[in-house]
Amino acid sequence: MDRRTFFRKSFGASVVVGAALTGKYENLFTTAYDSTNAPFDLVAVKGGETDVMLQKGMEALGGIRTFVRKGQKVVIKPNIGWDVSPERAGDTNPKLIAEIVRQCHGVGASEVYVLDHTCDNWQRCYKNSGIESAVKEAGGKVAPAHTEGYYHEISIPNGKSLTKAKEHELILGADVFINVPVLKCHGGARLTITMKNLMGNVWDRSIWHRTDLHQCIADFATYRKPTLNIVDAYNVMKQNGPRGISVEDVVMMKSLLISTDMVATDTAAAKLFGENPSDIRYIRLAADQKVGRMDLENLRIKRITV
Which of 17, 121, 220, 261 has the fewest CB atoms within 10 Å, measured from its CB? Predict the structure, then answer.
């Protein structure tokens, strides 16, 4: 089955593919959410199971209906990069992804897709991470992202090192885009959080590594903000990231961060991890490029203990 047939059969004729994605894509992305009217800039939840923490956190922001309208198509981007089991924390917690899918369907989302451009074999990553089965049980659909034909070139006008990239067509055509990284250490970027997770949106990541990884992460973050960022910090890989070696690399933190601001979220997550956010160069660069704010002391933060 070819790429076009797969998407037509799986997602319906209204999915944007192929020639329909030529031209400029900026206007394809819409959001139900205006962050200027938010009750909080950041919600930090700790002490509970992933589904309960998400429920409590979203309640503080008015519920998922604040971000998702009836009839909209939602794309969720977890980290599914590695062929490892959930307890290894190399990928986003499948229980968290399932709860997001359920909440989106609960407010009338027409379709909810989950995808990632994986590092290991994509089918094994989707299966062994537990995410594929969790998504399907919750009524969502997993989509492949393993061949270049799924990606279309976009320009990044505010980029310094990265001025263009090829992004997955489902993300380009989404009404709502939810970014759901797992917090963990990373050999090149120091930490994987919201901005680093967007590397799984694009086809050629090697350009980022060859050029200036931190600057490219910040540059891509200028292109478009996700509708919502949800950081999985239930189990956190503290060493040997991004893939990890064993469960000995993992510390249970039972935490969750939610925000529309990637810089604020990454700043808070770095602190939670035990790092100085100013030492994570891409966070500092993105703040300088006005992607978001590092000054947590001046933000409205809701802290919840379950």
Answer: 121
pTM > 0.85: yes
Instruction: Please tell me the least confidently modeled range out of 93-97, 187-191, 245-249.
Output: 187-191
| Dist. CA 99–CA 120, nearest whole Å | 25
Q: What CATH number is attached to the domain comprising 125? A: 3.40.50
Range of the domain at 228: 26-305
Looking at this protein, which amino acid is placed at residue 285? L
In a domain, 3, yes or no: no
Collect all residues with Cβ–Cβ distance below 8 Å to 164 and sequence separation of at least 6. Answer: 153, 154, 155, 156
Q: Residues near 118 by Cβ (< 8 Å), separated by ≥ 6?
A: 80, 81, 82, 125, 126, 145, 146, 200
pLDDT at 8: 47
Sign of CA dihedral 223, 201, 169, 42: negative
- What CA–CA distance (Å, rounded) separates 173 from 148? 17
pLDDT tens digits, one per residue of 64-122: 999 999 999 999 999 999 999 999 999 999 999 999 999 999 999 999 999 999 999 99
Q: Is residue 16 in some structural domain?
A: no
91's tokens: 């990928």
Q: Is residue 13 part of a domain?
A: no
Residue 7 in any domain: the answer is no
Q: 260-306 pLDDT, tens per residue?
A: 999 999 999 999 999 999 999 999 999 999 999 999 999 999 999 99
Instruction: Round to whole Å and give the CA distance between 150 and 146.
Output: 8
Q: What average pLDDT does range 195-221 have in this prediction?
A: 96
Work out whether strand 250-259 and strand 228-237 pair parallel, antiparallel, or are unpaired: antiparallel
* Long-range contacts at 150-158 (CB < 8 A, ≥ 24 apart): 150/3, 150/203, 151/202, 151/203, 152/21, 152/22, 152/25, 154/25, 154/223, 156/219, 156/220, 156/222, 156/223, 158/219, 158/222, 158/223, 158/289
